[in-house]
Amino acid sequence: LPPTIMATTTTSLTVRRAIPRAVSSTAAALTSPLVSPRWLKDNMSKSEVKILDSSWHMPLLKRSGPAEFLKRRIPTSQFFDIDAVCDKASNMPHMLPTPSDMCLALADLGVEEGDTVVCYDATGIFAAPRLWWMCSCLRINDTMPITPVVLDGGLNAWIASGGEVESGERLAAVEKGVRIAESAGVATYDASRISNFDDVRRAVDDGQANVQVVDARTAGRFGGTEPEPRPGLPSGHAPGSLNVPFSSLLVSAETPDGDKYTTMAPVEDLKARFDAAGVSKVGKPLVFSCGTGVTACTLALATELVAAESGMPAVPWSVYDGSWSEYASMPDAPIATTE
Whole-angstrom Cα distance, residue 192 to residue 199? Predict the structure, then answer.
């Protein structure tokens, strides 16, 4: 997977230096942050490939990622709970944990420095890009300690391809990632990949002259015509934002048994969606937002896929961790609608 480098344009974009990575031969051979079930079948037996189920569901669905993991999962996978590995001091859901806590959580699941971490979820493409982003932010001594990728189509695509599944409690003890655990005390995050409320508020105040917020929620929630799923939270958007619903970047599919799932759309379709929304021509860094920082990561993944396919550096981007749940809860945050 090529290191991400910030693109240069005639605007205020600056060049991001290449990020060195601790990589195995498996990671070095990757050319995209998205892998297929076929790739996973060919590589899952390698010791440096670790598989993490990060399934998360909207609370209204009353589904449990950890419970479903016990019923059906890809063999050798472990469960990464984004609601448990989070910033415990925040009142926002599943915010980024401290870099130290992130390292220790990965180590407990058997992840080691140099590993390729395959992120997947039960829905297809929904929560897995969130874990991909979390892992891609991590730094140890200014180096990316692991190489995260997303399994296209998730668990059901794996099943549709003939992949085996297992169930029940994990019986074998996990061999802890020793080096990544020992490095937890010096771990940091790449701050350029993370935005907060102050960043978005500054963008709104200057008319989004220097960065562009791109919202992944539905057009109705973005426009203020549909309610937010979070009680008491108004819908709408930060003034000047663009809207690319994350679902518009996905393709629906189903297994032979009729279980539905989603995959990423072809790269040419991703480019077309970004072009139609005006994202491709803004010429400035992008800040991806959504409801709680989950589906915004699908937009980030799509941006990297377009860059990987074209061979060009990715446009600078970050994810607003608190997203709309934080922004709209701030008493002084301006909110626009399309009504």
Answer: 11
Exposure letters 13-48 (e unless 16+ CB within 10 A, then b)? beebeeeebbbbebbeebebbbbbbebbeebbeeeb
Separation CA 75–CA 153 (nearest Å):
16
Q: State residue 106 phi and psi, 5-degree precision.
A: -65, -40
Residue 56 and residue 40: Cα distance in Å, rounded?
A: 21
- Beta-bridged to residue 174, according to DSSP, are none
Q: What 8-state DSSP symbol labels residue 248?
A: G
Annotated catalytic residues are 290
Per-residue pLDDT at 44 exceeds 70: yes
Residues 96-133 have pLDDT tens digits of 999 999 999 999 999 999 999 999 999 999 999 999 99
Spatial contact of 108 and 82, defined as CB atoms under 8 Å apart:
no
- Residue 79, judged by CB atoms within 10 A of its CB (0-12, 13-18, 19+), counts as middle
Q: How far apart are CA 199 and CA 316, in angstroms?
A: 15
